[in-house]
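Hey, weird one. I pasted the Choloylglycine hydrolase sequence into the form twice and got a warning about non-standard characters only the second time. First submission, copied straight from the form history:
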Amino acid sequence: MCTGISVFSKQGNPFWGRTQEFDMDLEYLGLIIPAQTVIQASLTEYVAKHSFVGVSIKGADMVVDGVNDAGLAGGSFYFGNVNRYEPKSEIEAAGKLPLAGEEFVTWALANCKNVEEVREKALAEVAISSDGGMLGTSLPQHYVFQDLSGKSLVVEPSIPGSFEIYDNLVGTFTNSPKFDWHVTNLENYVGLSQEIAPARKIGEANIFSSGKGNGLYGIPGDFTPHSRFVRATFLNQFSDPVDDDKAIELIFHVLDSFDIPKGVVVSGDNHKVQFTQYTSAYDLKEKALYVHLYDNRQIQMLSLEKVTEPTRFQIISEQQVAKMTPLK
């Protein structure tokens, strides 16, 4: 359960952000991987052509989301029931590199400079395997990318040994079903408006407006991927344009609408709790990550620095509270 959006500043610069939900407590770190690093994935290894910075999981040489030195940003999202993976042996027999579901974004940021290279290289060079995986299994995932040109791309391993790829013209991304279904579903909500509907006379009765925000009456408020896609699209669409220095702030304001408190969403016989573990935002031009955690709402920042080896950075998990000071 994750939600992602693209934001463009008044200056035309792209920013991208996402929420990360999961039903297992994980420890997250900042990670910078320099170019020429040999990246050891669970089924293969390759050499990074680009350096990149992103959010990693402790014990894993990969990022869940990140941005590279060319300004390509991307994230990995859950894609249950729709993913179609192949065994490692079949992928290698086709002359491609096998990757576990959660490893594709790391590979793309390490190897591609923009979304067009992601499109080209994904189809020609790699496929997602049913083998391997950081957690002992290849997780069902699909992926979204944003680059400095303003283009966004969705990559879905819904074909065995290959991908279905879509231009993301709405700048929104969630989970299954497939991306094209979500875009078609927006047809049901084109009547939504940010304008407050006025009162009107019906017969001889004066019917007052129901109040603020009623132009958005009917916008879905639950946490299903279908509803989050609609809600994120229109909240982002209706938000006032901002300058570069306010774009990261806007991403957090929009994505905070999708924050899931612990206990609200529970799955399975063992009652696993799914909650928003972190929210991240990226400045593609400055190659910078901004993130806050479930237990620490203070925004923490990490920019792409020059390092000689993969370097991890602590994301402080304890809530940081600033004490008020007297006005002078």
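That's the output from the first submission. The warning seems to come from a hidden character in my clipboard, not from the data itself. The mean pLDDT is 96.
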